[in-house]
Amino acid sequence: xxxxxxxxxxxxxxxxxxxxxxxxxxxxxxxxxxxxxxxxxxxxxxxxxxxxxxxxxxxxxxxxxxxxxxxxxxxxxxxxxxxxxxxxxxxxx
Amino acid sequence: xxxxxxxxxxxxxxxxxxxxxxxxxxxxxxxxxxxxxxxxxxxxxxxxxxxxxxxxxxxxxxxxxxxxxxxxxxxxxxxxxxxxxxxxxxxxxxxxxxxxxxxxxxxxxxxxxxxxxxxxxxxxxxxxxxxxxxxxxxxxxxxxxxxxxxxxxxxxxxxxxxxxxxxxxxxxxxxxxxxxxxxxxxxxxxxxxxxxxxxxxxxxxxxxxxxxxxxxxxxxxxxxxxxxxxxxxxxxxxxxxxxxxxxxxxxxxxxxxxxxxxxxxxx
Lengths: 93, 267
Description:
The complex is a heterodimer. Chain A is an alpha+beta fold. Chain A has helices at residues 9-14, 61-69, 71-81; strands at 3-4, 17-20, 30-35, 38-43. In chain A, strands 1-2-3-4 form a four-stranded antiparallel beta sheet. Chain A starts with a strand and ends in a 12-residue tail after the last helix. Chain B has helices at residues 14-18, 29-39, 80-89, 105-113, 147-151, 182-189, 191-204, 208-219, 231-238, 247-257; strands at 5-8, 24-26, 47-50, 71-74, 92-95, 100-102, 121-127, 132-137, 142-146, 164-167, 172-175, 178-181. In chain B, helix 6 (182-189) crosses helix 7. The longest helix of chain B is centred in the last third of the chain and has 14 residues, at 191-204. Chain B has three domains: 5-97; 117-192, NE0471 N-terminal domain-like (2-Layer Sandwich), CATH 3.30.2020; 205-266, lambda repressor-like DNA-binding domains (434 Repressor (Amino-terminal Domain)). The interface between A and B is medium-sized, with 26 and 34 residues.
């Protein structure tokens, strides 16, 4: 089951979602931010957006900051889902 | 006006036309017949978007026109007998019905109007007997995915193929509590999509470290699986903290990754 981060109502009502999805074990650890036709991948290591397209500037700054503020929860969910590709390996902690 | 898509409209789709939906539009029986004849010989398929198909029945009266390269999306459910008829006229017919998941109408309109429609799913149907899922992209090109693909890594929870939905504006395919991203499905099943994704990725990070990390994960290896190279060293190379890697170290990495040394940066 994907992990869905509960977003503040204002964002959720507009259709924004933040998920850790299945079948992404080969990718750099990230949270997927979804809105309508678009998905942005935010690194769970650095908070940076992993792709130049769609443009990261289209994600409201407040929303990106809110998602990043929940990084510890998201990192835990990612590590549980993909134990072979954890956010930080032992030596990085 | 795009002739890749053609909207046969009535009151139901009037709003689409008013809001500038990017498709040529026809209304009368005469316009429908003319468009079918005019576009029928094109090699590039045309996606017809039609409320319920009743507007197309007259086409079948001319037997010599049967079977074109067109693809048809019916927005409303149609009786089975009409679907059979429409299958004589169109190479692909996507319609609501038992077992079919079609995006909600507002999401459907946005996906179809998007330049990215071929990289999103608009509909799908599960065939339990054949153990496959047929997914339709926004250009109605079908992608056939065996159940086995969704089950290949023993996901938890397991996909429930009886509870199926295309959702998130075509970005997600859901089976019960299991979800797969459209991106992952297309990456695995469409070489063109994979090439484009690879191109995007290379533009962003084609460093040696990024290539090694991608390859390592694709091989299912941990950083401790490189004989002769410490996990700490692998981590530093992947992060780009070691830019110049010794030839002997690189050879050991290539050997563990089961690729030729020269091939590492092609991943």
